[in-house]
Amino acid sequence: MRGGRAPAFLLGGGVSDRPRLFRSSKLRPPPAPQIPEAALLLSLLWMPALLPVVYRLLLLPRALLSMASGSPPSQPSPASGSAYVAGSVSAAFVTCPNEKVAKEIARAVVEKHLAACVNLIPQITSIYEWKGKIEEDSEVLMMIKTQSSLVPALTDFVRSVHPYEVAEVIALPVEQGNSPYLHWVRQVTGSVPESGTAPP
């Protein structure tokens, strides 16, 4: 290093002899804010839960205006086909040991108007703990579309005919989708009393 320039790696410039664009800390751009991936993921997971709150907040000015004018606020009618009430339809999921059992249960819940439609998804692999052992089974997944108010009756019926000791029945409310389809689900399942009991 006698009489010459120090190698670039000693100056912190890597192996290149090109001059740096930002030699002074005053000229460097500010660092981008760092958002941990976990915080970003959590914020994305909470967004759907906040949609009903945001929807109600958006309706607040209309409600205040109607209170000031003395007229009741107009509500969209789900029967008119113009608006879907978020969460009034659910997708329920049930696992079955084979296609034969899944088809029997699917046909029965549609015939009893506990569901408008059932999709059968074959050859899923389930890994779970049962009675202290890790198990792995091939199963059929049923995706059942029904009214949210019918989920308790659907659950009772599935439990009464399912071969498993503990049948999986879980339901998620549908926040939005193709409005004509969602109204069709409600129409097809509408002949069932919404008291939570299945028809005979």
Any key phrases for this structure?
single chain; disordered C terminus; alpha+beta; four-stranded antiparallel beta sheet; 4 helices
Tell me what the structure shows:
By secondary structure, the chain is α+β, with helices and mostly antiparallel strands. The longest helix is centred in the N-terminal third of the chain and has 33 residues, at 37-69. 34% of the residues lie in helices and 21% in strands. It has helices at residues 37-69, 99-111, 151-161, 179-188, and strands spanning 89-96, 117-130, 133-147, 169-173. The chain has a four-stranded antiparallel beta sheet with strand order 2-3-1-4. Mean pLDDT is 76; it is low at 6-16, 71-81 and 193-200.
- Residue ranges: pLDDT <50 for 5 or more in a row? 6-16, 71-81, 193-200
Report the end-to-end length measured between terminal Cα atoms: 95 Å
| Shape descriptor | flat
The number of distinct helices, counting runs of at least 4 residues, comes to 4
Q: How many β-strands, per DSSP?
A: 4
Multimerization state = single chain
Largest sheet composition: 4 strands, antiparallel
User: What level of helicity do the residues show?
Assistant: 25-40%
- Global structural class: alpha+beta
Strand order of the largest sheet: 2-3-1-4
Mean pLDDT: 76
* Strand composition percent: 15-25%
Q: Radius of gyration, rounded?
A: 29 Å
Helix-strand pattern: HEHEEHEH
